[in-house]
Design a protein that fits this description.
34% helix, Rossmann fold
Length: 194
Amino acid sequence: MTDPAALAEHLRALPPSVGATVLVGVDGFSGAGKTALAQDLGHQDDVAVVSIEEFYRGWAGLEEGPARAVTGLVEPLRAGCTPRWGAWDWEHDAEGPPRDRPLAARVVVLEGCGAGASVLRSHEALTVWVDAEPGERERRLRAREDWPLYAPHRATWRAREQVLAAHEGLPDAADVIVRRHPDGSLDMRTSPRR
């Protein structure tokens, strides 16, 4: 699998892991390319993407995001219900009102830091860790449109995401490690412990 279309085809072939849904976690450090990969997957048939950032409670909410995703996303999918949650409003630093989030796709990709946490991994058909060199991650972050909002929180967030990854045994606990090249092609390998 060297491109997102081939990866999406592989994901669609996996057995459901939550109700009738194939849940896939796409995790990695900020700037690694998780969102770009998830967006590419989301352009494929029968794949929907949810950002775990909607479950954080602001800049101090990274650690509780995975458990909130279980409550708002995983449990309803398991029960065959429409997921419902209030997404965090990053500009106003407040939780938005709860609303229904219909997800009609067979494959749901949950992407973001913490999407591979053990509380979620146990419900995922596949856990992917997206990797990139530290310098490349920083370059990508600084080129993002939301960098001015993110910049004051960068050092603290980097420390928190590294602590969370170490606590969760990531990237080794992931099923697959993906590195995305500038031309959009993917290098994929099985995680060392798999």
